[in-house]
Amino acid sequence: MLVLSRRPTQSFVIGHDIVVTVLEVNGDTVRLGIAAPPEVTIHREEVYKELQQANTTAASPSPESVAAFAQRASRHHHKKKKPE
Amino acid sequence: MTALLGDTVIATDMPAAPAEASVDQPVIHFAAGIVGFPQAKDFVLEQGDGGVFELRGADAEAPDFVVVAPAPFFPGYAPVIDDETVERLELRGEEDALVLLVVTLADDPGAATANTLAPLVVNARTRQAAQVVLTGQSFSLRQPLLAS
Questions:
Q1: Could A66 and B54 be called an inter-chain contact, meaning their C-beta atoms sit closer than 8 Å?
Q2: Do A51 and B54 count as a contact with CB atoms less than 8 A apart?
Q3: Residues of B in contact with A43 (CB under 8 A)
Q4: How close is the nearest chain A Cα to the Cα of B8, in Å?
Q5: A63, B56 in Cβ contact below 8 A?
Q6: Cβ atoms B12, B99 nearer than 8 A
Q7: pLDDT in tens, B58-115
Q8: Does ipTM top 0.85?
Q9: Tell me: the pLDDT tens digits for B44-55?
Q10: Where are the beta strands (DSSP E) in chain B?
C-alpha cells in the first residue's frame, strides 16, 4: 500500500482525474473532499460491502419465485384498496 | 409518494415511464455499473404483473433484478436525492426521475424485502440511471414489502 503524508488543504491525484483533498483533521476524524468523473462512484467501504451483499442476494431470482411474488403483490394491492 | 430532488419534490409513483418502457423496451444505462456487478451497465425494464417490474441484464452474463415502484408499497417513501446525483444523471426536474426499488425474494413470497436505502434512480428522459445510497436518511437494505 502506498502511504502519503498530507496536511489540510493539500491533495493527491489518483490516475489523471481523481483528486482527493484533506479538508480537516479533528482528533481521530479526517474529512476528505473527493473530485472524480461521473462514472466513478464513491462509497464508504462498509456501505459498499453491505450493498454488494444485498445486490448479490437480490440478483437473478428464479422465474417461479418471481411469479409467486408478483401474484402475492397483486393480492396485497387488492387488499389495501378494500377499506376505501 | 414523493421524493426530494435537491429542493424539488418529485413523484415516485410515475406509471407513465415504466408503461412506456415496456412497449419499446429502451435500454437503461448504469454508467457506473451496479455494486456487486461492475460490468453490468445495460438493462431492459419489463413490466410484469402486480406492479412488479423485471430489470433484465442486456448481456448474457448480466444479472436480472425484480424491482418495484415504491408508491404501492411505501406510500410515505420520500428519498432526498443528493445534488451530485442530480447533476450526474442530468435530472432537470421531478418529471425526469423514476425511482425503483430492488427486491430480494425469499422462499416465502410474503417475506420479500425491498432496498429502500439504495434505490435505482432513472432519468426517464435520457435512460441514464444509478443506484443511489441515501446517506443520513433512515432507510433499510431489507425493508419488508408485504407486511400484513
A1: yes
A2: no
A3: 35, 133
A4: 22
A5: no
A6: yes
A7: 988 899 999 999 988 999 898 999 888 999 899 998 889 999 999 999 999 889 999 9
A8: no
A9: 999 877 679 999
A10: 2-5, 8-11, 27-30, 42-47, 52-57, 65-68, 80-81, 97-104, 113-114, 120-123, 128-131, 143-144
Give residues 48 to 107 of B whose Cβ lies within 8 Å of A.
48-52, 54, 63-66, 68, 72-73, 88, 102-105, 107
Establish if B1 touches chain A: CB-CB under 8 angstroms: no
B116 to chain A, closest Cα gap in Å: 11
d(CA B111, CA B105): 7
Who contacts B58 (Cβ-Cβ below 8 Å, separation ≥6)? B27, B42, B43, B44
Question: What are the start-end ranges of the H helices in chain B?
Answer: 16-24, 83-88
State the Cα–Cα distance between residues B12 and B98, nearest whole angstrom: 6
| Residue whose C-alpha cell reads 419489463 in the numeric block | B46
Chain B residues near residue A80 by CB distance under 8 angstroms: 72
Residues of chain B contacting residue A53, judged by C-beta atoms under 8 Å apart: 36
Name the nearest CA neighbour of B50 among A67, A51, A40, A52.
Answer: A67
